[in-house]
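Figure 3 (text version): structure tokens given as input.
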């Protein structure tokens, strides 16, 4: 869940075109609309060869400015360097609320840390195999594989294999619940639980476990949780506890 003031932020989209496929960019932009306005859109890579042909339609369709970087000498990555230099220039010019970097390259971890030191958000889109250091360096890490999930298709996608088994989510959610309540029988608003999960784990995403919404994920987990309410904005959840002397309020409706 993204706060309203955060959704109005001015953001810079910087794409490592040598590291990610062009076909993912449209979904990245759609996802980033949740977080703010992409007022800067740039892609870095070698656009003179076959890759340029592949990227041309994407660049035009999404108004992305290409920064052509020829293939450098051995041991150097010109696209990475150009992206980092532009990011630092934009950072010091001011006027931005955050950055979105599209890459799975761990070299951008230091850049993400530098951006956050300036009290700006740094979102990174990368593949499942991205290094842990990169995931932990940013404000939020979004797996490119999760962008396949379309909310219009319902709460889950039977044809899409989740990145992680459903059971893995149980441990993460129970830990977050424990931090929010004094007693397992206490109710927690689902939107509050979602904020807690995202603030503690940069890459937490219900789509990783095969569900678009947190409420649907909790319902799928069944045994550990009791969910009350039809929508995330008004729903609440508590741990399923053994009968005891404490009276538990019945769900509404």
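Below: residues designed for each position.
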């Amino acid at each position: 869940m993204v706060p309203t003031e955060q959704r109005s932020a001015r953001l810079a989209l910087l794409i490592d075109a040598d590291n990610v496929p062009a076909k993912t960019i449209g979904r990245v932009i759609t996802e980033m609309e949740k977080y703010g306005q992409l007022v800067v859109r740039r892609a870095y890579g070698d656009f003179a060869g076959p890759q340029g042909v592949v990227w041309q339609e994407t660049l035009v369709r999404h108004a992305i400015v290409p920064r052509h970087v020829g293939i450098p000498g051995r041991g150097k990555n010109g696209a990475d360097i150009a992206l980092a230099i532009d990011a630092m220039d934009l950072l010091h010019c001011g006027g931005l609320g955050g950055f979105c970097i599209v890459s799975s390259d761990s070299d951008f971890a230091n850049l993400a840390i530098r951006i956050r030191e300036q009290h700006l958000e740094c979102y990174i889109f990368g593949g499942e195999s991205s290094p842990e250091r990169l995931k932990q360096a940013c404000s939020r890490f979004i797996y490119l594989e999760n962008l396949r999930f379309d909310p219009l298709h319902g709460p889950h996608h039977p044809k899409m294999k989740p990145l992680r088994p459903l059971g893995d989510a149980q441990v993460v959610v129970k830990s977050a619940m424990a931090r929010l309540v004094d007693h397992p029988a206490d109710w927690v608003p689902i939107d509050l639980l979602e904020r807690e999960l995202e603030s503690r784990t940069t890459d937490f995403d219900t789509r990783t476990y095969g569900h678009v919404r947190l409420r649907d994920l909790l319902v799928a987990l069944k045994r550990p949780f009791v969910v009350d309410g039809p929508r995330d904005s008004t729903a609440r959840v508590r741990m399923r506890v053994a009968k005891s002397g404490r009276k538990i309020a019945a769900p509404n409706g």
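The longest helix spans residues 78-93.
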